[in-house]
Amino acid sequence: MISWEDIYKVVVSMAPLYVALMLGYGSVRWWNIFTPEQGGAINRFVCFFTLPLFTFQFTARVDPFNWNYLFIAADAISKLVIVTVLALWSKFSSKGSYSWSITNFSLCTLTSSLVVGVPLGDAMYGQMGVNLIVQSSVLQAIIWLTLLLFVLEFRRTGLDIYSNTSSSGDSRVKPVELENINDLEGNMDMVESTSTSISSKPSFWSFIKVVGQKLAANPNSYAVFIGIVWALISNRWHFQMPSIMEGSILIMSNAGTGTAMFSMGIFMALQEKVFACGTKLTIFGMVLRFIAGPAAMAIGCFAVGLHGDVLRVSIIQAALPQSITSFIFAKEYGLHADVLSTAVIFGMLVSLPVLIAYYAILGFVN
After folding, report:
1. Which residues contact 119 (CB under 8 A, 6 or more apart)?
2. Contact, 25 vs 230, CB < 8 A?
3. Residue range 115-151, pLDDT digits in tens
4. Which class does domain 4-155+207-362 fall in?
5. Residues 291, 350 contacting (CB under 8 angstroms)
């Protein structure tokens, strides 16, 4: 049973996040220290420096040889359920869209496991709970955040190419069907403009190559893979990271979560409202985060036959508050950052009573 002391430990782990958040908020709203452009630069610093090193640092410390592979399978099934539902929604619903599918995936699946999950898991289920939550964090970084990064970059590259194509093709002539281009012989300007518009549309593989090149320049793409490779090597042959290397990583990675919350505070200050996305989207985000995500995880758990405390931890870790990294990526790639910031801020406020309720209910599940 969770005691008041356990609740206090969780609150203690969450309180510094709000200190960093309020400092970022005050730096713009009260003290006028940063401009919007400088706020964007701070977010890029977090995205390309502190977060990759933070990801590498915690990934490199895990022991992949002692993972619970049934739990991993359940987690994969739950994510595939969500991806399938979102794909069908995007294709067949009049309200469905590729952009909102990306955001809804983040809201359903990406959690703040290390900041909130570890102290809460320890209070509820001891070391076993901590181990499973850390495993979920590593899986999230290896697979799902990497997938999120890919689709965000895919979307932005597509928008950039479309913008360039439109600007080159629409400046002198209306769009012309490809099969009618022979009819344009004799006109100077129209043939050249149309040819430019057609030739500027890349093939699918050229498009993927551009996306790959951009991802290769983003350290978030490979930080987690370097970390897991080091974890495999160090645990297999009992290597220890040289202290000079560890110190160099820690000096930046320790700032990862704090600078991310600081950047979110700046973003909040630049909005008209604290909960920038409005009441309806806030409620919608909370439903996805605290109901849809755990429900999908329950499906995955029952599919692979998990039971007992492993089942309970699996569902509770799926109900943890929104991942801070998901906001940083949303801000960097310009996709519904207002929704993700609200999900992080409001989600952390309401997560403790929600998670305790889940803990009480799951106590009756075998």
Report:
1. 9, 10, 12, 13
2. no
3. 778 888 888 888 898 899 989 998 998 899 999 999 9
4. mainly alpha
5. no
* pTM attached to this predicted model: 0.84
CA-closest candidate to residue 355, choices 319, 305, 318: 319
Q: Could you tell me if 44 and 266 are in contact, meaning their C-beta atoms sit under 8 angstroms apart?
A: no
pLDDT < 50: residue spans in the chain: 171, 173-187, 189-198
d(CA 269, CA 133) in angstroms, rounded, equals 32
Query: To which residue do tokens 């979307």 refer?
Result: 155
Q: What is the pLDDT of residues 231-264, one digit of tens each?
A: 999 999 988 888 999 999 999 998 888 899 999 8
Token pair, residue 142, equals 């290896």
pLDDT at 178: 42
| Averaged confidence pLDDT in the chain | 85
Check if the beta carbon of residue 44 is closer than 8 Å to that of residue 37.
no
Neighbours of 322 (CB within 10 A): 30
Phi, psi at 54, each rounded to 5°: -60, -45
Report angle CA 149, 153, 156 to the nearest 5 degrees.
Answer: 140
Paired tokens of 206: 């050229």
